[in-house]
Amino acid sequence: MASAAFEEIVEDFEFLPDWEDRYRHVIELGRAMAPLDEALKVPATKVDGCVSQVWLHPEIENGIFSFRGDSDALIVRGLIAVLRALYCGLPVAEVPGVDARRELERLGLNEHLSSQRSNGLRSMVERIGLVAQEKG
Description:
136 residues; mainly alpha; 12% strand; globular
């Protein structure tokens, strides 16, 4: 089951009439997210497989998973914000079991992202799952 924060994004998408509005909303979600400290933008946090620069920094406290992230592309920053809504706050053991593909399909992202952006999104989801398995 998706988090309340992710369900809120799903509801927002239902009220937005077209993909351009949804695209702008994803960008705004990214703009609202605090930037990742430059000191955390290191090879260990960099996500391979993305066209743009992407960094994800996982944080696990008391068995609860969260992460911070950043990108040099506005839309990718927004996608990071969407993934944060999907994963942050879950027990770390539950993170690998999230069917991100199915949840993201509810937003219609698969049909409206370029193949390169879709590959990058898939790389971010894979990294999140791997980190959660290692730490969980």
